Amino acid sequence: MNPDNLVQTTGEWLRATGPESDVVVSTRIRLARNHAAYPFTNRASPHQKAEIEAIVREKVAQVDSDRPLHFINISKLGQLDRQFLVERQLISRELANAEGPRAVVVDDREAVSIMVNEEDHLRLQVMRSGLALDEAWQDIDSVDDRIEQVFDYAFSDEFGYLTACPTNVGTGMRASVMLHLPALVLTKQIEKVFRALQKINLVVRGLYGEGSRASGDFYQISNQVTLGKSESAALTEIREVNRQIIEYERQARTLIIKETRQAIQDRVARALGTLQSATMMTSEETMELLSSVRLGVNVGLVTGLPITLVNELFLHTQPAHLQKLMGTQLDGEERNAARARYLRTRLKEAGPNPN
Amino acid sequence: MKCQKCTKAATMHITEVLPGDRFEELHLCEDCAQKVLFEVPKPLKSGSVSGEESDEFTPAKSACSSCGIKFVEFRNSGRLGCPNDYTEFRDELLPLLENIHGEIRHAGKTPRRSPKARAANGELLQLRKQLQVAVTREAYEEAARIRDRIRQLETS
Asked: Cβ of B87 and A156 within 8 Å?
């Protein structure tokens, strides 16, 4: 499949149709798996990596009869296409920048993706809109079962699924929930929430760029422990923590509307006004303004603008997406102009109104 | 860079000077560095001119029989070389796993198809290593023999 086919669409995870989607953007679960008869990726020769890739292309990509899976050879893609797949969260930055034979297998709805020759031979991933940990687990569990029939997993009774890094051994599972928390950021409660999370072994990360400050007030919460805890126990923990954070965020939203309505109204209206009329727009500013607009839509301060469109704009204004949409390579300045133009056009079509 | 003892970022970089012009580099996070630095110092080996070297800083000198990685290499990179390393370096890994996960035994999903059914996998790992070595030595006849054996095992 050619990544160009994906440009006009939005992945499953951005549809904003799932449960709690006023706060939760998406749920993602990934499983790390390795072939028992090959060295891990970092010790594998290019020839061995090519063999792993061949097993995936010939067997794994055929296992799902319900939905066709497409095989994308990453080493044949240019830098822009690789960056594009990173922005869509279909591959990791590490896989994009790695060398040698490597690939990703994706279904039409971009709900399932399988990275090949990342840190582990396989990284299966399922994405869902909203808070949907159970559904995502059922999905990935069944994909995993089917792959197991054609791919000999490295597994030990003692340590579970064996991974290149001991931090993933056991279930090999990382479940992440991506939250939009603008009100907790505005009311400066966010640090407090995260300090509490670290105590219970959950990790918080920003949306784009690991470890960096979260941009657009998006935060990802994931489990850290993979050994000695079953998948369902880990999922229950994450679910409960997320329910609490969702509740805190909603309370904070109610509070700021009640106590600082005018200030929030002004903030949202200015954000929308800037997005509708600016002629140069950086990626950072776009994220920040769209975050205010998204908050405005969710608390009823903006009408006529579907959340799905706001989500889509977050994605489409990322550098690689913008260049694919414009159909040409653009440098920094050109991108800022193109981004502003794109935002003006899309918002004009929708015709939102500040209340 | 990650801490060599846990998953946090390494902020302390320590060069340990060992007898006999040797030294070892440690990259640790604040917490682990404290532990290492304030450990009871080991008795100095005075006059160790006999050539007898200490093993203390490099446990498990032997390399994995399947992939050839040494435990020190794993400690430097944070990545193991092959599934067999979990058996080969089990004793060294246990404290590390306990540290990371607080547990040392798997409690989750098990593959439906028992991995024991594929006892050949261990041999395949070793054969692949031998194949690589044979190819680098340009011993093509031997390589061909190994390749045939791999094919045979894969289809059995």
From this structure: yes
Nearest to B132 among A45, A227, A231 (CB): A45
pLDDT at A39: 96
What's the DSSP call for residue A20?
T
Size of interface A-B (CB pairs under 8 A): 134
Residue among A36, A119, A141 whose CB faces B83 most closely: A36
Domain boundaries, chain A: 3-248, 260-350
Q: Chain B residue with minimal CA distance to A149?
A: B113
Torsions phi, psi of B96, nearest 5?
Answer: -65, -45
Percent of chain A at pLDDT above 90? 73
- Calculate the CA dihedral of residues A111, A167, A234, A152 and round it to 10 degrees: 60
B7, B67, B79: best to mutate for the A interface, most A CBs within 10 A: B79
pTM of the model: 0.81
For chain B, the structural domain boundaries read 1-39, 57-108, 115-155
Alpha carbon of A224: minimum distance to chain B alpha carbons (Å):
8
Subunit contact B79:A40, Cβ cutoff 8 A: yes
Q: How far is CA A351 from CA A271, A292, B15, B42, in A?
A: 15, 17, 63, 73
Smallest Cβ distance to B118: which of A152, A224, A228? A152
Buried b (16+ CB within 10 A) or exposed e, A252-279: bbeebbeeeeeebbebbbebbebbeebe
Tell me the pLDDT of chain B averaged across its residues. Answer: 76
| CA neighbor of A26 nearest in space, from A133, A171, A156, A137 | A133
The total number of residues written for chain B in this structure:
156
3-state SS of B7-54?
CCECCEEEEEEECCCEEEEEEECHHHHHHHHCCCCCCCCCCCCCCCCC
Interchain CB distance below 8 Å, A36 and B118: yes
Cβ pair B100:A227 closer than 8 A: yes
The CATH number that domain A3-248 falls under is 3.30.590.10
Closest CA relative to residue A353, chosen from A228, A287, A289, A268:
A268
B30/B40 Cα distance (integer angstroms) = 18
| Structure letter (DSSP) for residue B64 | P
Quick: pLDDT tens for A133-172. Answer: 999 999 999 999 999 988 999 999 999 999 999 999 999 9
Strand partners, A156: A160
Position A94 scores a pLDDT of 92
Out of B109, B118, B124, closest to residue A231 by CB: B109
Q: Do residue B113 and residue A158 have CB atoms under 8 angstroms apart?
A: no
Considering only residues A54 and A59, tell me which one the structure prediction assigns the higher pLDDT: A54
CB contact (8 A) between residue A166 and residue B103:
no
